Amino acid sequence: MAKSKKLKNVTLAQVFKTIIWPRKKYLSMGLVLIIISRLAGLVLPGASKYLIDDVIPKNDSTMLKWLIVAIVVAIVIQSVTSFALTQILSVEAQHLISQLRAKVQRHIIQLPIRFFDNTKTGELVSRIMTDVEGVRNLVGTGFAQMVGGVLTSVICLVLLIYISPLMTGFALIPVAIFGVISLKAFGRIRPIFRERGVINAEVTGRLTETLGGVRVIKGFNAEEQEIKVFENGVTRLFQNVKQSLTTTSMVTSAATLLLGLASAGIMGIGGYLIMKGELTFGDFLAFTLYLGFMIAPILQMSNIGSQFTEAFAGLDRTEEILNTPLESDGGHRTLTLENIHGNIVFDNVSFAYESGKDVVKEISFQAPAGSVTALVGTSGSGKTTIAGLAASFLNPDSGTITVDGHDLQTITLQSYRSQLGVVLQDDFLFEGTIRNNILFPRPNATEAQLMAAAQAAHVLEFTNRFPDGLDTLIGERGVKLSGGQRQRIAIARAILADPRILILDEATSNLDTESESLIQASLKTLMQGRTTFVIAHRLSTIRQADQILVIEQGHIVEQGRHEELLEKQGRYYQLYTYQARI
Ligand SMILES: Nc1ncnc2c1ncn2[C@@H]1O[C@H](COP(=O)(O)OP(=O)(O)OP(=O)(O)O)[C@@H](O)[C@H]1O
């Protein structure tokens, strides 16, 4: 996975086009509300000037009443608009987050298997759930605060110039210095935020692995080690947050210092002008209030700025994922096969995970429709890789794999995989009922089809003993199943899916004889009439196979049926004779 250094920055223009512009309706409504709210906010300082310079000197109690009414109305408007703003913008921001999460998940799930081999699950969870959260600042109240703040500042600036250009000029110097400091600071924080996303993903990734592998950790008494790894992770996260906090607090303190100095100066100049009779008390009061209104949003900018930077940093990472090519990308896969017979031919196929290191080397063989091909060989010889190639999880670097005469790389994944079934060693069962786990590839199957599959895989034998039968919950909140029972559910699922091509990675776990014979029987039913590739560990499966491919360092060193290969007294014979299990 690309590290943060290689990331391209998402630009303002991109964000405008993809995030801001499609929401122009909400954002413009928000803008109108912000304008109303901020204008209403200016009533109070304006009224104060009027009160001091006109109403009080003239003893005008009628005007006083109206002044109070105006202030109350303005306050009510402010409170109503602030409610509406949150309703419109914050809700839309959360909506955007959910849309983005769905988009990122949709993309990630369509990435090639190799991407998942190289990326921790927890890291991906963090990318889907956490990285996109920052965007709420772009659309939500952060946006409102920024636009409202800029607007208020500009209006106040005009009013300030109107009251006293001299004092305004004086006030603007520190504001300009502050602007330069904050721009520099946010440029520095963005990579820090991006790094935070990376650390967060790494820590979450490792934590997920730790919790998932708790048996191994306890079994090797490695708790202390894992605690240390996690502590290091959270410390890195802390250091990262600390770094960004130091920068943001420097911005805030620079603002306080510069703007405080400006206020002191203005008090001096203002006092001097009042004494000379060039400024009224009311003007002075209004000036200080307006100045406060102009400066407050600028102070807030440090906060809003870091929110925006966080949003952009998250988007940088999200964009990186969204730019990773999909498994189906490349434009070759255009052929839709309606009915697959399952004639599979490997012709001179080579494959390498890392360039130059072929793990499958120029292999050729035919797997006729409905036949069973058993892959045997020592560990690391390339059996899983060959099965992965047949499943279209991997693509050959050279040579071709054809299905019914068509190059597999030209067939749409959707049409090929709809006819493919996989039963892997670590049977993947969801939290939920046994029924839902079997129905997973064909949610609309009828009860009769479901029962037939469950029966054929000998699942009913054990579910009938449960009070809830097939509706028994499994996983954390339900019953725990034995390895053999889990395998039978996985087999029932594949029988129900009724694929033309089957990839089977036989579990190596030793089962008791009864379970073993039930699984053998289930597998026999499952393989019947389907083109099957089986990474075989059971002698019974190997004996049934139409052909056995003996794989050695990525080559097929022997090929034939069990008896033929035994007779040959070659590599297969050695494996068979010297090893209890193949
Ligand atoms: N994702 C991967 N990235 C890099 N190398 C890999 C990857 N998966 C497997 N390999 C390497 O490819 C070679 C073949 O692996 P493969 O898993 O196909 O063997 P296998 O015969 O199925 O082994 P086993 O019986 O132990 O499962 C091995 O040397 C392995 O280290």
UniProtKB/TrEMBL annotation:
Q: Name one GO molecular function term.
A: ATP binding
Does Cell division appear among the keywords? no
Q: Which PROSITE patterns has this protein been placed in?
A: ABC_TM1F, ABC_TRANSPORTER_1, ABC_TRANSPORTER_2
What name appears for this protein in its UniProt entry? ABC transporter ATP-binding protein/permease
The regions listed as transmembrane in this protein's record are 26-46, 66-91, 143-163, 169-186, 251-275, 281-299
| Keyword Glycoprotein in annotation | no
Among SMART domains, the record links this protein to: AAA
Subcellular location field: Cell membrane
Name the source's superkingdom.
Answer: Bacteria
Q: Which residues form the ABC transmembrane type-1 domain?
A: 30-310
One of its Pfam families is ABC_membrane
Q: Where mainly located?
A: membrane
What lineage does the source organism belong to? Answer: Bacteria, Pseudomonadati, Bacteroidota, Cytophagia, Cytophagales
Keywords assigned by UniProt? ATP-binding, Membrane, Nucleotide-binding, Transmembrane, Transmembrane helix
Q: Which organism is it from?
A: Pontibacter populi
Q: Where is the ABC transporter domain?
A: 344-578
Q: How does it sit in the membrane?
A: Multi-pass membrane protein
